[in-house]
Amino acid sequence: MVEKDCESNSIALELAEEELKTLTITEGEPSNVKEKEPPRETTVNLKTADGVTFEVKASIAKQMETVQTFVDASVHDGADMAPIPLPNVSSGDLRRILEYCEVRASMERGKEKKEFDEIFMKALSGDEMKRLLLVANYLGMKEFLDFMCRGIADMLQNKSVEYARDFFGIVGDYTTDEEEEYRQEHAWAFQADD
Q: The SKP1 component POZ domain covers which part of the protein (predicted)?
């Protein structure tokens, strides 16, 4: 058995050497060898609620559990891949998320990513933050969802309860008198509010 492995290894080595000889080109000789183009990454088409279709790299689409479910079902059925409908996503929100994913994927170092994250978050309005949070949740993009939650939490840090209620559109459960009584009983909890 060891002899067969050695024999097959030597045959493979000989084949590799022969292939290498055919690819060796000396300077000044015309080349008959064509450079191989890198394989094109597969894409998935996503159609937003407002009818815009995006061609998305498979590596980014795989981050979206909702989309991945469609892809898996389509592959299983053997059907051609039609655009995947995203009825709860607008083109503007999807464009922002895709831009974020593309830029982050191209970055190498953690420091660059952190700086980009800060710039990205600062450029968003409160309404955009909430929409992107909901879209990330709908798409099942765990990493982006965590990022948005962190950004919103940082923004709400040291803000008043009223500010948070207003930001999320929450109506208080207590009457004004009940809330005032609660604030007096637990005054320490409200001392750091902006």
A: 44-102
